[in-house]
Protein 1
Amino acid sequence: MAATTVLNKQKKETKQEKEGLNLFQSTQTIIKKALDKLGYSEVMYELLKEPIRMLTVRIPVQMDDGKVKVFTGYRSQHNDAVGPTKGGVRFHPEVNEEEVKALSMWMSLKCGIVDLPYGGGKGGIICDPREMSFNELERLSRGYVRAISQLVGPTKDIPAPDVFTNSQIMAWMMDEYSRIREFDSPGFITGKPLVLGGSHGRETATARGVTICIGQAAKKKGINIKGAKVVVQGFGNAGSFLAKFMHDAGANVVGISDAYGALYDPDGLDINYLLEQRDSFGTVTKQFAETITNQELLELDCDILVPAAISNQITVENAHRIKASIIVEAANGPTTLEATRILTDRGILLVPDVLASAGGVTVSYFEWVQNNQGYYWTEEEVASRLNTVMVDSFENIYETSQTREVDMRLAAYMVGIRKMAEASHFRGWV
Ligand SMILES: NC(=O)C1=CN([C@@H]2O[C@H](COP(=O)(O)OP(=O)(O)OC[C@H]3O[C@@H](n4cnc5c(N)ncnc54)[C@H](O)[C@@H]3O)[C@@H](O)[C@H]2O)C=CC1
Ligand SMILES: O=C(O)CCC(=O)C(=O)O
């Protein structure tokens, strides 16, 4: 490598570290702060700063043209002191080991915040499902399960949907696992179709949880949801249902986006029409001539901003220009640490990802409980239980942030890490 290239790489890394763009390192930084605030020793941090297990797999898949393509996949298990690990599987071209590790650590925090009997796990495959056929996706999904089957299971590690994965992919994965084990195993995975043991309300759960957090945050800020201007980045599972719920609650959804651009109308977008137009990957803007960029979207004039797409979207570059009074993170890791500090100093109420997006895993837990007992709940039962969990979790973290005089993210990490640290201690690990 030429000397200038090395120098440029070093400069880039230094900037990344400074800005906290490296998700894994910035997660470690906050975990350390949270454990220090809670009075835990250095050795507890040594245990919790990395996943306990990280599996990398190579998955050969026969493509439709007859050629074999080999994909790389990961499954990370952060900590299983509380119970089996739990978390989604992401299919995305930018999946990488560090990101999957960070995502599994966030799952631990989410499970701690909403008090589930799980630790955190996460998986991912480097691929672009938008460019693959239905049959290729099925072979890839089944190949991934064969590759990780020794490490996962209903009482070990329970996968679920995440970016660019859905209930059909969960169904293939469940079927493959059941074939390997030679018995029906609905509790192996959540986010399944209803007929295969899925739960009412799982598809909309992440958006419902975010909506509940928006309601609580709006009360704290004295903002009326009716007529409030809302901007949502991402129009997939989390973003599209959220836009719909906000629209139905009387809010004015003025901006939405997908991976290809954003739509803006100061008078409010026709969300029901956009929902009909979006494809299964949450793409809708390609059909419109007049679009703005994702970066412009984030800086629009609004009361409530919801990043619901990918990580590192709000950084030092744009944090000063954000106009919203409330930011609720539906996506995992959309705001860097430095940007969190800027936004908090500016008096913006930021509801962190590990709290705001925990509705998804909460209803996944409900699904797993229903699979284990073989008795299924109504949509109303699921919604009511989710509401109680999310309201209590929000209030707990808000209260912690006020009494301990820390920002909402650090408060959420303190609440989220405590149970895992205690369980690790009682097991005699540290
Ligand atoms: N689905 C779930 O239950 C949960 C999802 N999340 C998080 O919410 C976020 C969105 O996930 P889903 O809605 O499930 O995914 P999805 O795959 O259904 O939708 C993703 C959306 O993000 C957009 N997108 C992709 N790349 C982008 C880019 N570079 N710039 C702007 N937009 C881009 C896509 O076009 C699509 O509209 C992710 O961060 C995910 O980890 C968090 C908790 C649970
Ligand atoms: O539903 C689940 O188990 C996990 C959802 C997930 O991956 C997430 O919250 O990031």
Note: Confidence is low (pLDDT under 50) at residues 1-14.
Protein 2
Amino acid sequence: MDTTITDTQKPFSLDPYHVSEEFGFILPAPLAELPPYYQPWMDIAQHVTELIYSHMLRSHILKMPLLNTQLLESHRELRLAHLALGVMTMGYVWQEGEDDTVKMLPRNLAIPYCEVSQRLGLPPILTHADAILANWRKRDPQGNLELLVTLPGGDSVRGFFMVTLLVELAAVPAIKSIPLVINGVQCGDAETVTRALEEFSQAIQGMTDALKLMHVYVKPEVFYGIMRIYLSGWKDNSSMPAGLVYEGVQAEPMEYSGGSAAQSSLLHCFDELLGVKHEAMSGAFLTRMRNYMPPSHKRLIQDISLQPSLRGFVQQQACEPLTAAFQLCVTKLLALRNYHINVVSLFIIVPAARARQLRNQGNISQEETVSRAPRALEEKGTGGSDIMSFLKTVRDRTRDVFNLK
Ligand code: HEM
């Protein structure tokens, strides 16, 4: 067996993909302020929640000046601008709930938002890359974290964004072990691959442990009844069947899916590495979600998929510790997906059933928070998927990897 990387095969490295050694896909040290010229945006973005509650957000946005985006220079400035314009857009569309949405985003928001989106290669809607990866700062020298901008839902919205950030952070050792695995396979070095896969599986366990904090910091009825609508998009959403016109950009409406951790690059990378092959419909949804990621992260997923098969290598080596380490990775990924299904059940399926029950009883009072939830999203995820069948199919295809024969 050849144990060296040949001259033509450069070692695989994370360097070209804007992935940080310390933070993985999380944007390191996001900016909290834009240059002073953009203060009219930040003044609104930092008060979106209060302005939604007072029903004043739309009128503030309509009075906002149309700003030139050319003064935004660095990647970090663009990311903060995309986040700020994103929360304004979600608030503008959903301020009055699902029964009084808008058909058009006004030009003074739509034009700069589309320009910034184009420069970043992101869609003009709030994404996981905005709300989670670029929405944090250290509050104190002890390293406690806080959000830069928020949406309605109080402590639960903070908890939801922060716990998701902690899941991304827990995954960093797994991301770092990807080049070790790929290069080890290239060199036929079973021992290195085994060690890297052991690291990898431990990190997935860390992600599941972090996900468990969702129950501590997020109230299901607040998530379901208040927050979720502000993460929803205008594709596959019956309350905005025609999509949204971005005034001054194009006359035809555009359709975009809402924010979802299905847009996190983590599990996409893991699936490609471990050889999880998705079924056609769920695979198409997940592939579409890659268009909601920073382009360099999307490229990393694609490049992992082009590497020689790890699963094939494990089969071919028939080496007990390697096979065990590989199987453990699949076990841990399966456990993470199973746990996530429980979370979804608690945060969406159970409150949706309660909301339906109240409606059937003719009890449409706003006293129970779940009653305020939009009906259009009862069966759907914020990304627009048919939740449970989608998640279970994805889980079952993960299980298929066990079959090494
Ligand atoms: C209250 C917490 C959460 C809820 C209610 C939730 C809900 C959902 C829903 C409904 C979907 C289906 C796709 C869509 O239409 O959006 C989904 C997909 C997904 N979610 Fe979550 N999610 C939560 C937290 C998280 C966290 C913290 C992560 C980890 C970063 C995560 C990772 C994923 C992934 C990777 C998918 C795509 C399916 C897969 O690859 O297994 N979710 N989630």
Note: Residues 185 and 310 are 7 Å apart (CA to CA).
Protein 3
Amino acid sequence: MKKEITEANRIEELEIQEQINNCLDEFRSFCFDAGAGAGKTYALHKSIEYILQGKGKNLRNRNQKILCITYTNAAKEELINRIGHNSEVVISTIHEFLWNFISVQQRMLVEQNKKAIENEQAKIKELEDKFLKKHSLDKNVFEEKISNEQFLNVFYSNYSKKATPFKTPVINYDVFFDKCFGSVDEFKKVVRSVNKLDSYQEALEKHPNEIKVEYNPTRNRDDLAKYIISHDSLLEYCKNIIEENNILQRLLVNSYPYIFIDEYQDTDKKVIDIISSAKEYASNKNKKFVVGYFGDSLQNIYENGVGNLPKKDKYTLIRKKFNRRSTHQIISVIGKIRNDGFNQKSIYKDNNGDLCRFYLSSNEVDLEKFLKQHRLNVNTACLLLKNKDICEKRGFEKLLAVISETPRFSGGNRGNLNSEFLQKNEQYIGWFFREILSFIKFIIRIFDDNSTVNKLIDSTSKSTSHITFNELSRFIKAIRHELANCETMALGNCIEKVNKIDSSIIRKIFFIDHKVDDPMSFIKNSAFEYLYFQNGEYSEFLDKFFEIKFNQFKNWYDYIYDENIHTGISYYTLHGSKGLEFENVVVVLQDDFARKKDYCRYFFSNFNNTRSLNNKDQKRFNQVRNLLYVACSRAKEHLYVIYETQNYKDSNLVKNIKDIFPIVEDINTN
Ligand SMILES: Nc1ncnc2c1ncn2[C@@H]1O[C@H](COP(=O)(O)OP(=O)(O)OP(=O)(O)O)[C@@H](O)[C@H]1O
């Protein structure tokens, strides 16, 4: 049934877009704040269309463009699909845009990188001095011992072991090291860092003609000595360079008089600073320039995002109270979770649905049974807190189990699982994992009869103009034959087979240059470097990784790229559901999450008590609230929340939950 919008709401919605259009006409920067499901993407799209209609010709004549920054590549593609390719519009993720903009400014980039190296040197020296003093060691003796090649072999081949099994072979190798152990982690850090000092010094002494800063979008960390930078440093360098440089501010303002930033709440503060410096320049010089931020501060779920827009009072604030996605009942529940008086309402007059249901259970709920009982079998998302549960449901639990044992994803680095392994924003996925994903993508395309030739050639080193029909068809046939059972083959085996058929593909996917004889060893060393943070040739673990079946990697690929998104039942983490929408949503909550034993309980227990929370506690409360808000607001028709907690009898807790959800059921069988 077609839902109906009242005339008053229709007019109000048009007026909101008109407020945005006025800002664009008058070059008044604005912040468009709207709740979940309000249609922010739609408004962004309309704003771009509006400028193109009225000012498109002017822009073309002046060689100017509209710049639109999206949070993910998926959001970028979505917007490009809606608007179509248009030479007056640049739609880009922030890193892609900034690198295009700044990469020609090599002199300033090199200067920034040198400063970063000097900072690192100073930090390492301080760390070393403290360590030497604490253990009464002589600097020269210590440095000579730890730079010895044999020592480094012992050090790295035992690196991932626990304290005692690590210490024993090191001390057996040279009893000198007996004096160095207070904390094993500290020792490891000092050895690793001090051994970098020489390469830092060499990098500083290089002739300027020999140096070029490169941005590697697949890496999550810098290699400062090689002048290779990753995401964070790109933002940092750009901020420093643009803030200090009027000419670049002018270039930005003159080239892009209209800048839109989508999902401002999860945008890095450095990006806002860069745009603000351009805005200030334009205002001082009376230049026509407008920036529009689109977002919702309560949907801030990533730590590096600003949350609230800094200096919001300097922008025209435009708000949209309507929700175009969900039923009245769901809007009421998500409004209570927000609890900030935002008061969102449905744009439709007749958008009634079922009441949202909340289930309390002391045990783990059998989700399959639950879905069957509620006849949830199409367009249904199950949102789970724990990575382990998601990986199990999506069929890549073995992959998770193996990588969880590596230094990159264990102990204090467990958080990397969310940012580098399960992150749907592919630019943040760990660099080695991105290479693996490219390999999986290549195999999937080879077996897909609907793949275009262009897509296939994309992964090979041959160019479309040189490859012959015969060559291409022989090549596809060979891979299809050799990898016919790839689903059950080990990843390492699949890579080796493709390498035998045509090693240029493997070299291209894994960035291996022609000087390397054995691509497979190179890939194994890359895995070691990535997962163990080390250069070396330790392979015991690597065998385990490369023995994992291809199918596990394919399931992981499907999860990252959201294949088959709306058919049947799909599983996501609560974080991963951002930006999506489904007819039915089942959210499963637990207390043991994010190194807390009361992760969700903290939110529900304090729901009516937030005034007494100090700043730190308020921040903790808000983190859970935002995540719950994002997850529950994905539902269009039906929302079910299951809370697995031992505290299901706590009357204050239950009372607070009842303040949010109209139906709260205890589904304990005992
Ligand atoms: N003006 C409009 N006309 C028709 N449908 C719309 C309009 N605006 C939004 N919608 C639809 O409403 C739903 C929500 O819109 P959208 O996803 O753009 O909201 P959002 O504000 O970006 O949501 P969220 O922040 O929760 O991800 C989508 O299904 C979208 O297609």
Note: The CA atoms of residues 151 and 174 lie 8 Å apart.
Protein 4
Amino acid sequence: MAPRVAVVRYGVGNIYSIVSGLRRAGAEPVVVECIRNPGEWDGIVLPGVGAYQAASARLHDCARELGEALRMGAQLLGVCLGLQLVFTEGREAGEQGFGLALLPGKVERLVAAKLPHIGWSRVHRVPGRDCRLLEGVEDGEYFYYVHSYAYTRVEEPWVCAASRYGETLYAAVVEAPPVYGTQFHPERSGRQGRRVLENWVRLLRR
Ligand SMILES: NC(=O)CC[C@H](N)C(=O)O
């Protein structure tokens, strides 16, 4: 039985590449506006397209049920914007927005000559930290990014891999079970991205 995964649609961008990536990774993805039946889900994905403020406003409408689903055993995967929404707050377009605060800290603007960062960057594990999403992936592999903001407290124990863009070193992979996230887009990162999704799906109860 394929694990059931809710893909929360809060942004305006195309989420169907993450839906097909999850299906290829062995899950049964269902696009939802909000989490209504917390016990129904083995996994919840916060996809990575859209603006922080709009997404956080929509997501707060179902933060309670999302938290209940995690308490009932669902695993969370935040992708790009979705990872950013896991933290306490984010700053985008000069405004302050509030995330789900599942992990402490804020998302900040990258320091670089050219933004957004659109393209492939190397992802390096943080030495000594277990990174289940990167199992079977070579250290220094390239993953695809589209962002201007990131979580930069790479010294925190839940950051298990990092990338650098411009002058900013930032979290590429975050793991604090049942919360997982990637700043890159695994669904747009070829075979190594597919492996990341397979690793996450494998964590879900059957
Ligand atoms: N892909 C995205 O939606 C990017 C997330 C966020 N808007 C950022 O610029 O970092």
Note: The helical segments are 16-24, 52-60, 63-71, 81-84, 190-203.
